[in-house]
């Protein structure tokens, strides 16, 4: 499986101008493409669907060609789901690391 680094996600409790709100996930996210080091800041609202590990720990995110195959045999925190109309995501634990796996929808 080929994986390409996309961003580093950092949970925050502060509001950041320009963040995008993803209603179903109850999360505000910044655009890592606009950060010089590809950092995405994420602010979770109370009562959101993400597990504690995702809400409280930083994560590395990687683009993959086949999300379903990439999560097979992994400790899945968030099963593959649609994050946006053009992007599917999943979160896994790899040892002590939280990883986000992403696939562009075709």
Please trace the helix and strand order, writing H or E for each element: EEEEHEHEEE
Q: How many structural units, i.e. domains?
A: 1
Radius of gyration: 13 Å
Spatial strand sequence of the major β-sheet? 2-3-4-1-5-8-7-6
CATH T-level topology? 2,3-Dihydroxybiphenyl 1,2-Dioxygenase, domain 1
Supply the CATH class.
Alpha Beta
Structure classification: mainly beta
Largest sheet: 8 strands, mixed
Helix content: under 10%
Number of helices: 2
Task: Give the percentage of residues in beta strands.
Answer: over 45%
- Quaternary status: single chain
N-to-C CA distance: 19 Å
Poorly predicted sequence stretches spanning 5 or more consecutive residues: none
User: Can you tell me the CATH superfamily?
Assistant: 2,3-Dihydroxybiphenyl 1,2-Dioxygenase, domain 1
Q: Could you tell me the number of beta strands? A: 8
**CATH architecture call:** Roll
Shape: globular
Estimate the mean pLDDT confidence: 95
Q: Which secondary structure elements does this structure contain, and how are they paired or packed?
A:
Layout: E1 3-11, E2 20-22, E3 27-29, E4 39-44, H1 52-56, E5 59-64, H2 67-71, E6 75-84, E7 87-94, E8 97-104
Parallel strand pairs: 1-4, 5-8
Antiparallel strand pairs: 1-5, 2-3, 3-4, 6-7, 7-8
List keywords for this structure.
mainly beta; 106 residues; 8-stranded mixed β-sheet; 2,3-Dihydroxybiphenyl 1,2-Dioxygenase, domain 1; single chain
């Amino acid at each position: 499986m080929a994986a390409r680094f996309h961003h580093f996600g950092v949970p925050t409790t502060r509001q950041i101008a320009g963040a995008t709100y993803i209603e179903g996930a109850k999360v505000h996210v910044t655009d890592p493409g606009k950060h010089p080091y590809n950092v995405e800041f994420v602010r979770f609202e109370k009562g959101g669907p993400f597990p504690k590990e995702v809400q409280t720990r930083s994560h590395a995110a990687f683009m993959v060609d086949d999300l379903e195959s990439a999560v097979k045999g992994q400790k899945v925190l968030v099963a593959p789901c649609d994050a946006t109309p053009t992007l599917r995501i999943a979160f896994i634990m790899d040892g002590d690391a939280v990883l986000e796996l992403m696939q562009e929808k075709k």
